Amino acid sequence: MKCINCNKPQPEYSFRVLEVHTLHVRDFGGEKLIQALGEQRTFEVCAACVSSEMRASLFPAGRIARRCAGFVGLVLAGIALTLALSLRDVMNALRVIGPLCMFVGLSGIAGKVRDALSLRKLLAGMNEAEARKFCAWQCVIRNAPKKYNDNDITYIPVDEETAGLSARELAEKYCLIPAIANQVHSTIDK
Ligand SMILES: [Zn+2]
Q: How far is the CA of 61 from the centre of ligand 1 (A)?
C-alpha cells in the first residue's frame, strides 16, 4: 500500500473505513436522504505526511494565509468600491455594496482563523500518539474521494472506537438514516 497523500510506500498509519454514499433529494416535502453502504477500503498515510500535517496545524499561519486569500481580495475590492462610489453621485443602495464586501470578507477571515486556532488547541490537548493519529486521519479525509457519481461519500473508521458505538450513536455521529446505521453497526461489529 502507498501513502494516500504522497504515494510513497511504507506508510505509518493504516485506516480501515466503511463508505456510506448519501444522495440529497429535494422534493415538496423538503430534503430527503437516500443512503447506501459502499465498499470497505484501507487508506494509509506515511510518517512524513503526518509530521507535515502536524506542523501545519500547530503553526497555522501559512495555512490561514492560503485559506484567507479570497476573503482578503474581497475586503480590498470592498475598500476600492467604497472609495470609487464615494466620489460619484450614485444611489444610496449602491453605496452598501462596498461595506458589504468588506463585512463578508472580514467574517470569512475571522471564521478561518477561529477554525485554525481551535484545531491547534484540540491538538495541543492530545498526547503525541493521539495527535499523530488525528493528523493522519485529517490527511485521509482531505485526499479521499468526496463524491461517487452524485453521492457524497462519508468514511466511517472501522476501529475500536466505532465498534464500541451503538447503531443510534453511529447514526448521530455520522448523520446516518436508521436502516443504514444498523447495517454499519453489524458490519463493524463482525
Ligand atoms: Zn506521504
A: 22
